[in-house]
Protein 1
Amino acid sequence: MEDFTLTTPALLFPAISLLMLAYTNRFVVLAGLIRELYARYQEDSSEKLEGQIVNLQLRINIIKYMQIFGAFSFFFCVVCMFLIFAGSQTGAYWLFALSLVLLLVSLALLIWELQLSVGAIQLQVEDVRSMRRAKRKP
């Protein structure tokens, strides 16, 4: 704990900031896609469109929690730096540990959301392949 200085939690600042930016970008893209699919669903309320919208809603909720845990990680990292500045090394040490745990939760949620994303894409690719096979049959 002797080497625990302001620079230790400061190392997380760029990483968390970039993650939050990436999370926000994912959120914006998915929200736009939901709006687009909703407009299509109003014209043609197919089960496939409904399933895609439900999948996207789940992914949006996961991203919301990714952002919440990332923001709390950032928050506790800042509080940790304040405690180091105030001379409370033990409290700062534990808050930094909490910040790392929250960041890990955020990253675990990212992995889950990525798996859902890849699964949805695989379903669409499989659908395209089956349509192509159906066109080839006489």
Protein 2
Amino acid sequence: MTKYKDSFESNLNKLEEIVDKLENGEVDLEESVKLYEEGMKLKKICEEKLKSIESQIKKIKHDNNKITKEDFS
């Protein structure tokens, strides 16, 4: 089974590979179900990582020659 502690990019690449296999019909029905389940897990992990990163992003605001940082909104 796939390990999900990889980087966001690695998990996204794995998800894209799964989608390609499913779209191209490269696998039988049983394997399709397994790949679909794995894809859903990867999708959830990628979404959670994006939410985490989004909360860390700071927006830089330039106002009256002062630079301030605000939380991403």
Protein 3
Amino acid sequence: MPEPLTPFLALATAGLVFAVAAILFIAARPGAPGNAVLAGALSAGFAAFSAVTIATEGLLPVVLNHTNNLWGVQVWYDLLFSLSVAVFLILPRARARRG
């Protein structure tokens, strides 16, 4: 018997759907310029969701989720590597614009 759709599974699925749609949209328009307003809005939404999660659940579950098993450590590494790649790609452009 399949598992029922929980709110957490629904949130995770919605995130996957939106991420795939965004990736396909970006890939279909390789010459399109970036949109700072959209990037800022997405960042604000992510920050707001993170703030609600931390206010509701606290910080300890973050540590427990990422140190409980190899999947947790894998997700932690995914986050660290994606942050590193983002900084690697963004920092030279930011420096070039600054001066």
Protein 4
Amino acid sequence: MNQMKEIRIDKVTLNFGAGKDHNLLNKGIKLLEIVSGVPPVQTTTDKRIPGWGLRPGLPIGCKVTLRGKKAEELLSRLIKAKDNIIPKSSFDNSGNISFGIHEYIDIPDAKYDPDIGIIGLQVSVTLKRPGFRIKNRSVKKSKIGKPHMITQDDAMNFLNEKFDVKQGE
């Protein structure tokens, strides 16, 4: 196989949205730290939405981004929480996978914490190939050619080979 066509995990992002509820946000921060082992970053609003009671700078969630070996280890645990079944609708046409975990206690090695209760989180996985750097570099940015892009089928085959993921409904 061509080395440049080899698919890799770029990053795994865990996301927790709490809205205006600060107690729920504190639980989410604790949850993401327990699951990932890394302290999360708070996310804030950019827009004012009076109907929802939001104003710029108000913390509404938290997230953690992992790369490299840690990302692979965490992803294998998160996929086991979904019983190795991810629906086709979770894959987009650009090599990204997103799915939710309804209860964090489904994740292997995650113990129930009475301070947190039963809450879930969102998982986003970004895949890449060698050469994807050209779209982010500072000098002479360029687009990635269509034959080099990661399709939905490529992403599903990668997860099936690497993590034994079955396609669900």
